[in-house]
Amino acid sequence: MPKRIVIIGGVAGGATAATRLRRLDERADIIMLEKDAYVSFANCGLPYYLGKEIALRDALLMQTPEGLKSRYNIDARPNSEAVAIDTVKGQVRVAQKAGGAYTLHYDALVLCPGATPVMLPVTEDARPRVFTLRNMQDTDQIHAAMEQKGVRDAVVIGGGFIGVELAENLVKRGLCVRLIEAAPQVLPPLDGDMARFALKELEHNGVAVTLNAPVEDIAIVEGRPAVRCQDGRRFTGDMIICALGVRPATGFLKGSGIALGPKGHIMVNARMQSNIPNIYAAGDAAQIDDFILRTPTAAALAGPANRQARVAADNIAGIPSAYGGAQGTAVARLFSKAFACTGLTERALETAGLAYHKIIAYPYAHAAYYPGARQMAVKLLFHESGKIYGAQAAGADGVDKTVDTIATAMRLGAHAAQLGELELCYAPPFSSVRGPANILGMIADNVITGVTRLADERTLKSAPPNSHTLLDVRTSYEYRAGHLEGAVNIPLDTLRARLDELDKSRAIIVYCQVGARAHLAQRILAQNGFDAKNLTGGYRWAAGGEE
Fold first, then answer.
1. What is the pLDDT of residue 546?
2. Measured by CB atoms within 10 angstroms of the end CB, which terminus of the chain is less buried, N or C?
3. What residues contact residue 99 under an 8 Å CB cut-off, 6+ apart?
4. What are phi and psi of 235, to 5 degrees?
C-alpha cells in the first residue's frame, strides 16, 4: 500500500475512501483536503433542515477534522483547496482559504472533488437573494434569508429531486412557492406518465408549477428578484433558489494529463482508476458505466459515491474490487407521497433502440383488508428475454421497499419472472401474500410465456383506424361513470354468454379498472379464438388516474 494517500474532497466519497483506507492499513499517511469548512456532512438532509423537520443543524455534521484525527488518525484539512496536480512529480498544489499555499506529495491520489451547482446569469443587485443548495454554507444562507421579516414567497428553478424536496420544505416553512422546470415534467429521472403523479401532489399542496419554461436570467424588477423565461414570462419571489443540477468540479485538473469525459467527468475503469495508474476517482465527478447499457454516465447520488469510494480504497490497498455500474436508484418524498425509480426509463430505452415490455399495476402496499391499505402505481420495464430494464413507483406507502426489491433483483441478474418467486416478508400490516414485486413478476411471467398479451399506449397509437375493438369489461355503473372513447361495454361476468357480439376479424383490446379483471377477460377471449390483448394499467392508468 502507498505510504502517503492524498484524498481531494470530503463529504460522501472522500470521507468513505479515507476511513476505508485506514481500516485496511494502520500505517499509511492519509491526508484529506476539503475546500469548504465542513469535511463531512449529510448533504441529502439539507432540505429537511430548511423545512425544520431536522431540528438541529449539528445533526447534519457527520464528522469533524478532530473526530477523524482521534478515531481514524486521518489528517483532514478543511478550507484547503486543491488547485493543480502535477502527475509527473506526484504533487498537489493546495491553496488555503485563510491565505497561503503549499505543495503536497502523494504516492496515491483519490479524486472526490464533487460537483458545483449549475447557475444562471444573475445581475449583481439580484445576487444576494439568489441561492443554490449544495453545502452547509448554502444552507445557512437560505436559512438566514427565510428568517428575515417580510420573506413570504420563493421561486425554485429546477424540478429534479432536490428542486421538489426544496419546494416541499419551503411550503412547510410557510412560504408560497413556485417551481419552474424547463422540461415538460417534474422529476426527469421518471417517465412523464409517472411524474404526473408528482405534479398533482405538488399542486395539491399549493405549489404553483410552471413546466416547459427554460429560464434565461434573474434580475431585480420593481425591487424584487425576477426570473425571466425564454418565452418572456417573468416570475418574482422574495428569494430564488436554483436547483438546475450540477457539473463536475474538475476545472483544476485541466492540463494535468488526467483524462476527462465530454462533460468534464474523470474517466475511470471498473476499479475506479483513472488513466494514470496511481490516481483514482469517485462520486459526482467520476464518469462510470451505466449498469444496463454499459455506456458512460455519471451518478450524482450519495449511494453510488460511497460504493465507488470503497472500490477505489480497496484497489489502492491491494484488494481487487470492481464497481458494477450505476442503476440510478433514487427516491423522493413529496408531502404524503413517495416517488422512486431504478434503471432505465422508457425514454432511455427508446433512445437506445431497445425493445421492451411494459407492465403497469396498482398493488396495495399491504393487505387490502387491513386498515389503511392504499394502492401504489408501479411500472416495470423488461425485455422478452426476462432482463429487467427498470422500475418506477409512486404512492403513499411501500414505494421504496418495492423499488429496492426490484433494484436488488436487477443487480443480481434476476429474470423478470423470478420477481414472482421471491419470498418476501408478509403480515397484513406490512405487505400482502403476493407483494407488489411478486405481482409484477407473475405478470411478467405470463407475458414472457405467452399466457398474457399486453397492450399499452404504443399499441393504441400504432393501430390503424377501425382495426380493433376497445372492450370495457367493468360493470355498467363503472362504464357510465367514465370510459375510454369508442369502447363497448360487456361486463366480465356476462362475457362468456355474449361472445357472439364481438367480431373475430378485429383485434380486441380489453380493459378494466386496473387490469386484473381484464386479464381473465383476455384469457376467455384468447381461448375462444379472439385476438385479444389486455391494456396494462387499465382505465385508471389510461385516464391519468391517481395511484
1. 61
2. N
3. none
4. -130, 130
Reported as a pLDDT band with limits 50, 70 and 90, residue 349 is very high
Catalytic residue list: 44
Count CB neighbours of 429 within 10 A: 10
- The DSSP code for 545 is -
Cα 186 from Cα 198, distance rounded (Å): 7
Model confidence pLDDT, tens digit, residues 182-198? 999 999 999 999 999 99
Give the three-state DSSP class for 414: coil
C-alpha cell at position 477: 355503473
Residues 6+ apart with CB under 8 A from 28: 1, 2, 3, 4, 5, 21, 22
In the chain, the domains with their CATH numbers are: 4-115+247-316 (3.50.50.60), 127-244 (3.50.50.60), 336-449 (3.50.50.60), 454-542 (3.40.250.10)
* Alpha-carbon span 294 to 275, nearest angstrom: 19
In this prediction, residues 362-387 reach a mean pLDDT of 96
The maximal CA–CA distance of the chain, rounded, in angstroms, is 89
In order of 348, 448, 508, the CA distances from 356 in angstroms are 11, 11, 21
Q: Kind and range of the H or E element at 453? A: none
In contact, 522 and 502? CB cutoff 8 Å: no
